[in-house]
Amino acid sequence: MESLPLYVTSIVLWLTKELFQISVPSAKERTFIAVKPDGVQRRLVGQVIHRFERRGFKLVGLKLLQVSKNLLSQHYCQLTKKPFYPDLVEYMTSGPVVAMVWEGPNIVQTCRMMVGHTNPAEAHAGTIRADFSLHVSRNVVHASDSLEGAQREIMLWFDGHDLLKWDCIDQSVTSEL
């Protein structure tokens, strides 16, 4: 079956959104994912990446870094007054972190579902945290919780030149799912 030209698909999506007042996920939506120190130290980075790739998402930014306390205070600015914040900073600076930006349709919501509940005991089977986390304070990954949060976190962790624009050979297939 031949697919519709891009301009026709764009018009259909726009009309659907306008006429029915529903949101249509953008293929260019991005999210921030970080494999935390326990995930890196336990050599889980490849398995985490594999799950997002298997879902059809495109990796557009990746770096391994030792996170500074300054970056953490900006990233977790809403948590700085919480009693667990000093332990969180100690944990997040205890080893390297793999920071990633992923792209795909409805990616923020989908990645949150794939990652699972913050507390691994409450995470559904098959999620990253249910499968790999050992404790609520050592839960392997961070995933942005909203599109706005993703944009803020991506700007904190990455410079514009760190993110690549590239075409995946199966992009036309995954963007239609």
UniProtKB/TrEMBL annotation:
Q: Which reaction does it catalyse?
A: a 2'-deoxyribonucleoside 5'-diphosphate + ATP = a 2'-deoxyribonucleoside 5'-triphosphate + ADP; a ribonucleoside 5'-diphosphate + ATP = a ribonucleoside 5'-triphosphate + ADP
Molecular functions per Gene Ontology: ATP binding; metal ion binding; nucleoside diphosphate kinase activity
Q: Where in the cell is it found?
A: Cell projection, Lamellipodium; Cell projection, Ruffle; Cytoplasm; Nucleus
For activity, the cofactor(s) needed are: Mg(2+)
Q: What is its EC number?
A: 2.7.4.6
Q: Where does ATP bind?
A: 36, 84, 112, 118, 129, 139
> What Pfam families does the database record attribute to this sequence?
NDK
Q: GO BP, one example?
A: UTP biosynthetic process
Keyword Nucleotidyltransferase annotated: no
Domain Nucleoside diphosphate kinase-like: start-end pairs: 28-165
Keywords for this protein: ATP-binding, Cell cycle, Cell projection, Cytoplasm, Kinase, Magnesium, Metal-binding, Nucleotide-binding, Nucleus, Transferase
Q: Which NCBIfam families match?
A: PRK00668.1 (NF001908)
Q: What does this protein do?
A: Major role in the synthesis of nucleoside triphosphates other than ATP.
Name the chain's protein: Nucleoside diphosphate kinase
Q: What species was this sequence derived from?
A: Neogobius melanostomus (round goby)
